[in-house]
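Check my protein:
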Amino acid sequence: MADGIRVLDLEAACRVFDAMPVRPRPATLHPRYVAADARRDPALTPLFLCVEAGGDRWLHALHTTVVPGTGWCDASSPYGYGGPIATTDAADFVRFAWQAYTQWMREAGVLVEYVRFHPLLANERWYGGRVQDNRAVVCVDLHTGDLEAGYSVRTRQAVRKAAAAGVVYEELPFSGDAPAFGPFHRAAMQAMDADPFYLFDDAYFEAMGRMPGATLAVCREAGADAWLAAALLLDGAGVREYHLAASSDGGRRLGAASLLLHRAALQAREGGCTQLYLGGGTDASEDNPLLFFKSGFSRQRLAYRTGSAVFDADGYARLEQRFALERAAHPHWPIFHRKV
């Protein structure tokens, strides 16, 4: 196998990640998140690869999947974001790391990978494959003294409407309410006719509950038990991420989701975070409804980019032939034979 590269187990990968001087370090890049997210699908296997040279490190945490009916594998980021992180931007080291990585992947029978880089880190700078712009995403700068001053008029009105209606906010460790969040989230996704890909099962949420920094944020009417809105928030070093969320019909009428995000931002700031990362829309269109909702909380936009690499061109060409219909249906997808 390639020199300079090691396969790490989960605990070793966590130690390397936690020692990285990179800040912020989003929770969705943490090896524990990568391992937990693999519970979405039994076909996903977490892989942690580390390159070391001259006192510097390059860490890439991802999933591999066996391509059905073949001896090949593909690789992809977990749901949300991924990509490598490194202790230096030095071009020589990044080039060395990439060469060691691509050699290892080729020898391991991995044909292709697809990566979603985290916009807060712009960690495509540590990647040697193809990089493409995808869409704009939203982030809230928590250094701002008066957060509401940066909100749109409609968002301020929604926050005040919910507060006037007596909607209350609470944060809890996600582990205790993971079994309740799953059905609540799935019901909301089904009401929106979301792709079944987004109907995460209970095992996924139980795994998320074991992650450090996994927080449940909920809004209720005063004195009531039923949730109007709920969100799974992931807290990492310097950043809180708005990971998954849902609202009831009553919650939408009262603007509960807006109050939830406002209070989550305030709590994140009190906890020492400098950014609340909201993400983007469900597609790249500028008029996407989810992007419209998130954009009411901040004018700050970041560039979300994706990356891909083919490690074995001959094998990839044979894969295209084997899955010709899928390739024709998705000509621009690096991994075309499954939904990533």
Observations:
- The CA atoms of residues 41 and 204 lie 9 Å apart.
